[in-house]
Amino acid sequence: MPDKTLRIHRAAGRSSVNRRPVMLAIAGDSAAGKTTLTAGLVEALGPERCVSLCTDDYHRYDRAERQSLPFTALHPDCNHLAIMEQHLQLLASGQPVLKPVYDHSIGRLSHTELLEPADFVIVEGLFPLYSKLARACFDVTVFLDPHEQTRRAWKVERDARERGYTAEQVLGELDLREPESAAYIRPQRQHADIVVRFAPVQGRDDPSVPLSAELLLRPTIRHPDLSEVMQPGVHRAMHLELERDTDGRPVDSLHVHGYVDAEESIAVEKAIWASIGEPERCAPECLGGIGGGERSEPLAITQLLLLHHLIEAGR
Amino acid sequence: MPDKTLRIHRAAGRSSVNRRPVMLAIAGDSAAGKTTLTAGLVEALGPERCVSLCTDDYHRYDRAERQSLPFTALHPDCNHLAIMEQHLQLLASGQPVLKPVYDHSIGRLSHTELLEPADFVIVEGLFPLYSKLARACFDVTVFLDPHEQTRRAWKVERDARERGYTAEQVLGELDLREPESAAYIRPQRQHADIVVRFAPVQGRDDPSVPLSAELLLRPTIRHPDLSEVMQPGVHRAMHLELERDTDGRPVDSLHVHGYVDAEESIAVEKAIWASIGEPERCAPECLGGIGGGERSEPLAITQLLLLHHLIEAGR
Hints:
The structure is a homodimer of 315-residue chains. By secondary structure, chain A is an alpha/beta fold. Helix content of chain A is 35%, strand content 20%. Chain A has 2 domains: 1-140, Rossmann fold (3-Layer(aba) Sandwich), CATH 3.40.50.300; 193-315, no CATH class. The longest helix of chain A has 19 residues, at 167-185. Chains A, B: Pathway: Carbohydrate biosynthesis; Calvin cycle. Chains A, B: This is Phosphoribulokinase.
């Protein structure tokens, strides 16, 4: 149980020379929105206080090498997971790592990079919650679980724009990856403190209506008290429900509809800040950005909730 | 001192002789039923596989010394909590400890004792979940939270029988301890995976009806799937409900009424064993013993659930 040793060491406190950073994991399948979610958090905290790491950098093979292999990038054997675990442990104990860098635009491992832990370290990728030892490194864990049709559309658009694929190639790759996604990526969902699901609002699939977010808040960490601001009838576009997750476990489900208006958002944002003792503060303006100057209010609320957890864990 | 941490780890090694035990915490106030719960588990697993430790042994002062102190045994300053934490870490990493022994019958620290960790280590007492470091040592955590009138009656009876107090002395001591119980003991409840509440069945306070148990099962660990055996209407004396805990957190609440009959018990016991892959097994007969040859079915179910978690964590 090396995970327990690590938990003991991390719990032993921050009095060491190497101050231990707060670690956030954002796991999810390809094009689930991990980078967008991460970018807003890094900008809100400031790059001098918050660094991020993508576990795709631990790919064992280049894109060309993968062509002849019997598995995709979603297979554990296609990644240096033992080194990823080692680097997560080093970062969690306040030490720097020299890490590889995978360049998605050319599909190659290009160089190495020194990463020194700041106050906050965000680790996003396919595998941050894959093993018990990796999970023991984190203070807060998130799994991004968007509606599958939404994710496929995001992946086609992003891979065509940034990685030089055709739509047919991306859809073919998605089908090829599906069994490995089911076997290795999606099971990480059960280990997340927060599961985030972006999806079209049911019955309102007009593409001009922004996507909604459903946040499953597991009581594995202490969430801000939203019961007052979420009283039935008080807010139309956000509500909190006691539910069972797909595996039967009790969970709080926070629904944030895409058509939420600014007044409602601000009330919830204030409640979240109040829960960390800063009732007058408003969300940083950088939250909610989805590229091209567009903004998603459900994404902003999601990011604010994660900021809350990062700040609380750092106290 | 990351260098020292590393040296210690390398010296300890993965394949070391010190196999790390599964650790269970049972926290709760005085006379909450911790020893009774523990005794059945140790008997079921066998003393060669399971040892127990009481954190009362870390009292800093004898009963006589405490008379002149401005706090009771429930105050952290009245206990060697840093040493308790150190011993928990040593045990969690598979190492033996030489621990003090507090003899309740005479109210004195009497001698020391070598405790070598077996496959399972049960730590019961006032403080096992008090600090983050202590909590990091455990695989499964329990808080005993009996109905307060029940606990007071248990304490009067036990302290008069075993510790030479009069009923008046015990009731006076309970009043004296109340603020420290509220400040230091009861807050540990929030950190338990399972909260166990023994209480008279409401509206059936005939003392001949055995106490019921309410088990709050937090999704911080994976509980056995009882949804099938607990379908509404199938069982009268046991039911599982999705609830909010007193602090608002989502939780499963398993009610086991004191008048549960053997047939119902056996169905639930089989479901629990089935969830660890032994569907034909029945509960060991030693479970449920409450002294004097008496037996409590709700206690037996509680102990069986904990056995499930110990065995699962050891796999």
